[in-house]
């Protein structure tokens, strides 16, 4: 008899032992629920990561411990506002720390780890000294990270609690030649291949864990009572109780259980309110492309809390500096407020409707009307409701609930609701397969058609099995674009695509533009964040119809909008100066709204590189080679308006190098390298795929990519910069803990005009004190800002730093910082949640050439920021 797979074995176990295990899970859940749910600082969130990393770290030698305990080297004195030496501010020499596994999971996938694995991993090592209580959102992230690192990064000896030998470092490879000709990237290709295999393994393991956990939780335990009658709207109180449970637990599988169960109750009791419930869970009011946002400032929310509780605004601001969380301030303010009468309980439809009304308010006295609507809601709030209502108004629930988790829970709830009691009597292997298929279907549909207004009604009406037919890519509804992985050595490209057909194309320095053309003639241009840019680019809207060939009725085109200087002509019509591409900064000068074609000074040229939909047929599953063929057959170049992206098939280092040099000469950023044939050449929405690689000129002998960072704080300027901010504190975004982690201090790359413009943008975003979702490490800016502005930053390399908090515990107990960071441009096409993540910074650090040579760095707060 063939051996059972791990999925079959575990499924059988859960099926036979579900009841007993369910009792244990119930007990665990009750224990978790008893934890404090008040807001904790972002520093505490990060310290949970450090504790988890210590739990699973291999036993270190005495020499390593002594080296890591060595005090930082004395910082050199800077006499001028210039870039300091690359070694300034570093710690004493430290023995290289063995890198942990690349990423504990692929960001785009909801792949869960076995809940018991962290415990087993932790039990094999010496436990660290007790630490302060940590945020549940951080703990559930770190536990999965620790298990992944322990199981994948350790040698067999280490897995038994012993330190294994360090892996050998490959000296060189015939293909691993850096773009600049150096050998600094010698081991990057090997790491990338290993990372790819790890990602595949994690994806398969995660699915098994997720689905089998669902079987365990649902087969062995009766569905919890909803707590409300079927003829009543979904109580907002019940939703907030679910939020509180999610915020309190440290177990990702428990989160899925809580949310899956709640969605089941809504589906079976009030299916008409499922859509509103889902939107409140992901803290949105509509699809992204509709652009309806609350946009409420902190001062307005403070006024509403003060008016609804009878407190002074000054007292509320004082409490905010203590707690760092307006939600906690609101709930504490309500506790001390006497009530004359009991208001009508809030329900999900009422809250959602009111939030949409607030978002739509504009014009005369709109601020007063918004405050009035918020006060009305707050007055009716009880127990946990004020906390989560205020957080919804701020735009961040901060309970560690990612949208991908919501999608998985919704898929599981749909499957279980259809099966009903049959699930408990079904063969565990069959049930596991149904859950996996259902979840994967919903995830695939949501990536292709990211519109819950379409998905949820179809899910209720047709079931999950009918989604693929009814919910497909649709012109007018933008999908999240496919993204590329960075690489800095041509050898990495050749190793990745060895034996496969690939193609190179220019990477233009513009703005991603997804063009939708409907059968009724409607044309819209969307950004990478699904924002409708038709009002920003009215000239594009006029130009595009001229490049469409006869017979085209509808399409979705992936392209790049680039600033373009048209050719100069003499009186006889001869070209005296050829046209040329202009840098992205020229586009950023445009207003985002109310742009009139006659007022446009900088022209835009569109470069099409992919066709995703044509005449009623989605093309996502077709090979890139075929999609390109269809693009050429149905569109035509128009001088100064539209061209196909320049591309060329290359097969050697020399060919790629020559093509890269040509792209840079023409004003491009570098190259995109893509799989052109085979199953890996399909279009993967919302995925940063290894099947697309980007090779930019800035990567040469550098880190491999620029970073997109959030401006979290500022430093008052001195001398010529007295009336503006002289430097800034930048942060990455941790999507699992919903916190911002400090990365570096930057003061380089700004002209006087830049600094004045940044001051005018950031001054209205100033807030009183550090927020609870900011982890700044020991950095101490003069002022803090709301996390709204994203900058693209280039760095010489990355180093470990005791000052900054980014990626703490992922590589070392210190954070990772940038050395000699330089401002490149504002990324107004990206939101704060789209900024670089700690995991990406970890990966960049581990891949960079200096890390492979053993340089672990130190870096102080001012390391190279000038």
UniProtKB/TrEMBL annotation:
The keyword GTP-binding belongs to this UniProt entry's keyword annotation: no
Keywords assigned: ATP-binding, Cell cycle, Cell division, DNA damage, DNA recombination, DNA repair, DNA replication, Ligase, Nucleotide-binding, Nucleus
Biased composition annotated in UniProt, kind: Polar residues: 1-19, 834-853
GO molecular function per UniProt: ATP binding; DNA binding; DNA ligase (ATP) activity
Residue span, ATP-dependent DNA ligase family profile domain: 597-734
Biased composition (Low complexity): 20-45, 121-136, 143-163
Keyword Metal-binding recorded: no
NCBIfam families cross-referenced by the UniProt entry: dnl1 (TIGR00574)
Protein name: DNA ligase
Gene name of this polypeptide: cdc17
